[in-house]
């Protein structure tokens, strides 16, 4: 039990915060839907339920992935977070389907909703909370990629770098971006339905929200399927190659492998050195490289191998992204 509690403390905080807030939002939206029968509110209720359950699983998965390697699993449990995320998106997929079906039925048989003020108040409250969670996910994204920003730059830089964030943070970012946008869309649809005879607007909004949810499902599935298979990180490989190439004892970089294990990077590096150096000098180079590479964000394991210098500068000639 103490080990489990220790692991939970290491879980993704953005996911836990998002799960709690979306659970509160789901309850409030559900109550509003029961009293008003508004189809856009129904879509938003399912959306929030899916997000809350999904983000809770993400938190658990991100925590358990930090478990130390065992004799049975010597490579650790890093990919567990990818597996949990694949299972979690199924929940969002089911909710997205139900949202689209309900919206379709409302377009065919439009019904005027009641409780305009209740719906507007609840959705406004939800959008504010979801925007808050999204902002926290933006700041967490920048923290994970090592970028500092203030003011509106937090928004622009986090959007530009979200693909570099950890899998759990990326999912929270995407889901709450869709949740915030979906809440605003539902608000617009409710206002249109209230002040015009076009009651199908709520059904159309429901379908659009469902499609947005499916976008999150698709992107999350593809990203985490690659993670389970063992995806190489070309950008990190380039960074590590440059670090190795600049070391005074390294003549050339022969081969680099950077494998993602959940949120962690495992690095294998083959460098060429002067064949006349001593074992002690080679050991100094190895220690230097390991110490420097381990300082890169997310790198937890480094293996350095040596080969004699062949007098051909493979790294410089082929380019840092073309090491075979």
Low-pLDDT stretches? none
* Widest sheet: strand ordering: 1-2-3
Can you identify the CATH superfamily of the largest domain? Cation efflux protein transmembrane domain
Q: What's the order of the H and E elements?
A: HHHHHHHHHEEHEH
| Largest sheet entry | 3 strands, mixed
Q: Which percent range describes the beta-strand content?
A: 5-15%
Give the oligomer, counting copies of the same chain as homo and different chains as hetero: single chain
CATH class identity of the largest domain: Mainly Alpha
Query: What is Rg?
Result: 25 Å
Helix content: 55-70%
- Give the averaged pLDDT, no decimals: 84
**Global morphology:** elongated
Measure the end-to-end span: 45 Å
Q: Can you walk through the features of this model?
A:
This protein is mainly alpha-helical and 324 residues long. The chain is built from eleven helices and three strands, in the order αααααααααββαβα. It has two domains: 2-229, Cation efflux protein transmembrane domain (Alpha-lytic protease prodomain-like); 234-318, Alpha-Beta Plaits (2-Layer Sandwich), CATH 3.30.70. The chain has helices at 2-8, 13-36, 39-64, 80-108, 116-145, 153-161, 167-195, 200-229, 234-245, 279-293, 314-318, and strands spanning 252-261, 264-273, 299-308. It has a three-stranded mixed β-sheet with strand order 1-2-3. α10 links the parallel β2 and β3 (299-308). The longest helix has 30 residues, at 116-145. It starts with a helix and ends in a 6-residue tail after the last helix.
């Amino acid at each position: 039990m103490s080990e489990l509690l220790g692991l939970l403390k290491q879980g993704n905080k953005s996911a836990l915060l998002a799960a709690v807030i979306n659970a509160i939002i789901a309850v409030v939206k559900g109550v509003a839907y029961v009293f008003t029968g508004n189809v856009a509110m129904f879509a938003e209720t399912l959306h929030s339920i899916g997000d809350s359950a999904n983000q809770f699983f993400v938190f658990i998965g991100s925590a358990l992935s930090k478990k130390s390697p065992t004799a049975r699993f010597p490579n650790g449990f890093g990919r567990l977070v990818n597996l949990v995320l694949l299972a979690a998106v199924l929940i969002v997929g089911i909710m997205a389907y139900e949202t689209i079906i309900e919206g379709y039925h409302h377009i065919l048989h439009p019904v005027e909703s009641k409780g305009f003020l209740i719906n507007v108040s609840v959705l406004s409250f939800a959008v504010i909370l979801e925007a808050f969670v999204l902002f926290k996910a933006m700041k967490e994204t920048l923290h994970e990629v090592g970028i500092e920003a203030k003011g509106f730059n937090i928004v622009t830089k986090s959007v530009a770098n979200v693909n570099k964030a950890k899998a759990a943070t990326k999912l929270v970012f995407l889901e709450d971006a869709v949740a915030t946008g979906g809440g605003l869309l539902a608000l617009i649809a409710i206002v249109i339905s209230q002040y015009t005879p076009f009651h199908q607007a709520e059904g159309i909004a429901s379908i659009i929200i469902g499609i947005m949810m499916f976008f999150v499902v698709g992107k999350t599935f593809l990203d985490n399927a690659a993670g389970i298979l063992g995806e190489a990180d070309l950008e990190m490989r380039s960074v590590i190659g440059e670090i190795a190439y600049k070391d005074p004892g390294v003549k050339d970089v022969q081969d680099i492998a950077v494998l993602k294990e959940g949120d962690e990077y495992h690095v294998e590096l083959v460098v060429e050195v002067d064949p006349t150096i001593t074992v002690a000098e080679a050991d100094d180079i190895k220690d230097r490289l390991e110490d420097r590479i381990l300082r890169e964000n997310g790198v937890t394991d480094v293996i350095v191998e040596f080969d004699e210098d062949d007098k051909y500068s493979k790294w410089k000639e082929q380019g840092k992204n073309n090491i075979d």
